[in-house]
Specification:
The complex is a heterodimer. By secondary structure, chain A is α/β, with parallel strands linked by helices. Chain A has helices at about 10-25, 35-50, 95-100, 145-150, 165-175, 205-215, 260-275, 290-305, 325-335, 340-355, 360-380, 405-410, 415-420, 450-465; strands spanning about 30-35, 60-65, 105-110, 155-160, 175-180, 200-205, 245-250, 280-285, 385-390, 425-430, 440-445. Chain A has an 8-stranded mixed beta sheet with strand order 4-6-5-10-11-9-7-8. In chain A, strands 1-3-2 form a 3-stranded mixed beta sheet. Chain A is globular, with a radius of gyration of 21 Å. By secondary structure, chain B is an alpha+beta fold. Chain B is built from 15 helices and 16 strands. In chain B, helix 9 packs antiparallel against helix 10 (about 385-400) and helix 12 (about 420-430) packs across helix 14 (about 445-455). Classes of the chains: A alpha/beta, B alpha+beta.
């Protein structure tokens, strides 16, 4: 991508580093900026390209990542006091792939602590602001990534999506965010929140970049037993822009009540645009999707309570004062190291797995999960993909929903069923509110059908002007 | 009241895989602390487990050897609890759906055979090891070398009725694991560990009594003693107070008693749930059949073969096959040319006696099977006498020198040349006229006296057979 350009990787990387330093005061997206490592890597990249031996066509491109990706020798905090000073001893698979292709990792981006949240307000290091309106949330949990891309502070980024954490901030910040099929991208080296739901996803300015990034990081990984074996399509080559005869499923449940009018009309217009491009719409039903949020919050918290048990103040991470008994040391470290939302979810997760409650909560949630999944598979007999709003509203004001966790959890209402079903989903910009806030269209595909999903997103993007708008900052 | 004890045994056996259960670290024992660790087995954020196929194969092998059903689908579950030797805050184990179920093992006890049911065998990972007393009394350390080493847990049905049966069950089980080459079976190194569940009930009653779980059993002897103690304790308690509390107890070997560790109320709620990082474990029938074919000859079969192939007594065969390494040694001695019964006598006699005396293992023995076969052959050929052989053996055992070398350097060669012996015989008879007269008068018991005198005069080198022959002729 840099091959035809006159600028060197070093110049471009320095430009992004400067911008990040300068703009971060306003946005708060960066937790770590690593100029020395980045410039050294950029120089290596420039040498390779001047020798005519780039590692890939991405060689020399700077990238900042959500701080959930483990980076060897570079602080990885998960926006938590628990890992404030944690320097990982290894690179995760995705990070290794990025490095092997010559990407320059120049910083780490804010998020909700341990990816638990939908507003990025649950960060131990302060909230991130939405570049479209600094009084508003960028969405979460990958809020730092979405805000940084929207503000032009990184060309591309990666997030993780457990219940909507890539798609929701993408919608709120007017960018493209994709959560692939569960198992499409390796989770090795991604700090776990809820293992059966977590997926890595590219976050980009446009669909073409999104397809390229997906091809770059996806694929089977023997280090992740849940990753899917098999060949990977070249997603970029599937962007024909032709969607003649495509059947788009419209789930009635995702359009009834609770949605802002502006959001509803934007989505309806987007669907009409697709029809003009040759697609047909089909009415479908997802009757169990309404149980997705409670189901999600049982399964995700259960898994999280176990995944976060390793942070006990013994081997690494935050440790309370040492002159305590073993039990007290672990309790004190966890109490002080985790923020309130993480503590709340650990308590809920511990409760739903406890003997005597397991059947009523965890087991029942697993059954509901199966029903939600079956709804989608039934629907896909009638349609090729599904469209819905990504969220019920545009970005809300910082602090607006902080006092009401249930209201906050409802931000996941359209996205979490997709995670529970293991399906691919993405959010693309499809309009703006009167206040100038971006609105996101969610596209949901069949398992491993990211190519078709990306192509319809591409066709829509080419037919509209939304991608040319920039935030006011 | 008369009571009956009901005992169930849980064995944790470390599998002899080269690498750990969920990562590629070495399982080597006794290395420098924390030298065999990686991000996965120390529970670094973001790491994921990958199942060791070899461990599964060994578990299947064990299951098949004890008649279990091998479940083609089993599930890894997380057992959640906090402890510094458990870096993830949970142990990956199997809970509701284990790999092997419903097996059995026959044990021979007081000459009768009894079948002990095996409820299940499941796979899990070992924990690290806490190290105290490293110089600073306020500090403890953790060694994660053991953390993630594959274990199988073998759970018996509550079919055991007394301490001796428990001991026999464990010895037989250990023997099977060692024969299968899936476990070292070394209790001291902790790669074969046992917990016992003990309860009592009035004779004839079907319902089980309240059980206690006994931990910290570090030898077969300790198991038998602890169970015996626990039964007695429960009997006294039931007779005096009429009830027993469910609890976990620790065996204190020095004090010879069990001590309460925690009650049922204090027991952990492990919050088991299927591990979302691992897919259900699927094993194909083809794989199971392939493993079945790889099961080696076990002790019972081997003993029977020794009787038929080598014509040694059943007793010898049983003793020799009790320990796989001893049976292997014996067969190697025979393969090196020693007559089987002679080989058996030497292995069961001198070798086992010496090893027992030193508390040593056959693997550490300086006498190779071929070396022992050579010693036996020297006796067979009449080069040395049985008495000399004992002396040579002791030297071989000490120094590792070959029998031939020792015989040569010590000048121990037996005197078989009859003209040489004849001279000594003549001298002895001439010097002991009185005794000669008694012999002639019919006192045949004095014959031994003459043999002794000849042997003494020859410094033990005279071939006893030749001496006998000559004496009979000359007296």
């Amino acid at each position: 991508m840099l091959s035809g350009e006159k600028a060197s990787s070093e110049e471009i990387t320095k430009a992004f580093l400067n911008l990040a330093e300068k703009e971060n005061e306003n946005i708060g997206a960066f937790l770590t900026i690593a100029p020395e490592q980045a410039i050294a890597s950029a120089r290596e990249s420039d040498k390779r390209r001047s020798r005519g031996a780039p590692l890939s066509h991405f060689d020399g491109i700077p990238i900042a990542l959500k701080d959930v990706f483990v980076t060897k020798g570079m602080r990885t905090t998960c926006s938590s006091k628990m890992l404030e000073n944690y320097i990982p001893p290894y690179d995760g698979t995705v990070v290794e792939k990025l490095k092997n292709m010559g990407f320059i990792i120049f910083g780490k981006l804010s998020m909700d602590e341990f990816a638990m949240g939908t507003s990025n307000e649950h960060s131990a290091f302060g909230p991130v602001k939405n570049p479209w309106d600094l009084a508003r949330t960028p969405g979460g949990s990958s809020g730092g990534s979405a805000a940084a891309i929207a503000a032009g502070l990184t060309p591309v980024s990666l997030g993780t999506d457990t219940g909507g954490s890539v798609r929701l901030p993408a919608a709120y910040c007017g960018i493209v965010g994709l959560k692939p099929t569960y198992g499409r991208i390796s989770r090795y080296g991604v700090v776990a929140f809820a293992s059966s739901l977590d997926q890595v996803g590219p976050m980009t300015r446009n669909v073409s970049d999104c397809a390229a990034m997906l091809s770059a990081i996806a694929g089977y990984d023997p280090k992740d037993s849940t990753s899917i074996p098999g060949d990977l399509p070249n997603y970029h080559s599937l962007l024909s822009g032709k969607i003649d005869g495509l059947r788009i499923g419209i789930p009635s449940e995702f359009f009834s009540g609770g949605i802002d009018d502006e959001v509803r009309s934007s989505i309806e217009n987007a669907i009409k645009t697709c029809e003009k491009l040759g697609a047909k719409t089909v009415s479908i039903s997802l009757p169990h999707a309404k149980y997705a949020v409670p189901c999600y919050y049982i399964i995700a918290t259960a898994e999280a309570s176990s995944n976060l048990a390793r942070y006990d103040g013994i081997r690494y991470g935050f440790s309370a004062k040492r002159n305590l008994s073993l039990d007290d040391l672990m309790k004190a470290s966890r109490t002080a190291g985790f923020g309130p939302e993480v503590s709340l979810r650990i308590i809920v997760g511990t409760y739903v797995l406890s003997s005597g409650y397991y059947d009523a909560y965890y087991l029942k949630a697993q059954k509901v999960r199966t029903l939600i999944k079956e709804d989608f598979f039934d629907a896909f007999k009638k349609c090729d993909l599904i469209m819905s709003p990504t969220s019920t509203s545009c970005a809300f004001k910082l602090g607006e929903r902080s006092d009401d966790p249930v209201q906050m959890y409802l931000n996941d209402i359209f996205t979490s069923p997709v995670n529970l079903s293991g399906l691919p989903g993405m959010s693309i910009p499809c309009g703006f509110s009167r206040e100038g806030l971006p609105i996101g269209l969610q596209i949901i595909g069949r398992p491993l059908d990211e190519g078709r999903m990306l192509n319809v997103a591409y066709a829509y993007e080419q037919a509209t002007e939304w991608k040319t708008r920039r935030p006011p900052i | 009241m008369k009571y009956e004890a009901v005992i169930g045994l849980e064995v944790h056996a470390q599998l002899k895989t080269r690498t750990k259960m969920f990562c590629s670290c070495s399982t080597s024992f006794g290395d420098r602390p924390n030298s065999n660790i990686c991000p996965v087995c120390t529970g670094q954020p973001g790491t994921l487990p990958v199942v060791n196929k070899n461990a599964i194969e060994m578990a299947i092998k064990t299951g098949l050897a004890v008649g279990c059903t091998i479940n083609t689908k089993s599930i890894f579950a997380r057992k959640n609890y906090f402890y510094p030797d458990l870096p993830k805050g949970y142990q990956i184990s199997q809970h509701e759906f284990p790999l092997c179920t419903m097996g059995y093992m026959d044990i021979t006890y007081e000459k009768s055979t009894k079948r002990i049911g095996i409820t299940r065998i499941h796979l899990e990972e070992d924990t690290g090891k806490l190290m105290h007393d490293m110089g600073n009394p306020n500090e403890s350390h953790v060694d994660f070398n053991r953390c993630g080493v594959p274990l199988i847990e073998i759970v018996s049905e509550p079919d055991v009725r007394n301490p001796k049966e428990a001991g026999e069950y464990l010895r037989t089980l250990r023997n099977v694991l060692v024969y299968l080459d899936v476990c070292e079976g070394n209790l001291q190194e902790g790669n074969f560990r046992c917990d016992a569940n003990v309860s009592i009930r009035p004779m004839g009653q079907e319902k089980f009594g309240t059980r206690s779980e006994i931990k910290n059993l570090n030898s077969f002897k300790a198991v038998e003693r602890a169970i015996a103690y626990e039964i007695e304790r429960q009997v006294k308690l039931l007779d005096s107070e009429g009830k027993i509390v469910q609890e976990t107890r620790l065996w204190n070997d020095a004090a010879g008693k069990t001590e309460s560790l925690r009650s049922k109320e204090e027991a952990h709620d492990y919050r088991y749930f299927p591990d979302p990082d691992l897919l259900p474990l699927k094993v194909s029938n083809e794989w199971i059949e392939k493993v079945r074919k790889s099961i080696p000859e076990l002790a019972l079969e081997r003993s029977a073969r020794f009787v038929s192939q080598y014509s040694i007594p059943r007793y010898d065969a049983d003793v020799l096959t009790d320990e796989k390494s001893i049976a292997d040694y014996f067969e190697d001695v025979v393969k090196s040319g020693a007559p089987p019964k002679k080989a058996s006598n030497w292995v069961m006699g001198e070798i086992l006696r010496q090893l027992n005396e030193d508390g040593s293992e056959i693997s550490a023995c300086k006498i190779s099977p071929a070396g022992l076969a050579q010693l036996i052959s020297l006796i067979e050929k009449g080069v040395i006498s049985g008495t000399m052989a004992k002396e040579v053996f002791a030297e071989m055992y000490r120094s590792g020198e070959s029998a031939e070398t020792i015989v040569k350097t010590k000048g121990l060669t037996q005197m078989s040349d009859s003209s040489e012996i004849e001279k000594i015989v003549d001298d002895v008879i001439a010097a002991n006229q009185a005794q000669h007269a008694q012999y002639k008068a019919g006192k045949e018991t004095i014959f031994g006296f003459f043999v002794g005198q000849v042997m003494k005069a020859s410094k033990g080198k005279a071939n006893p057979a030749v001496v006998n022959e000559l004496l009979k002729k000359k007296l």
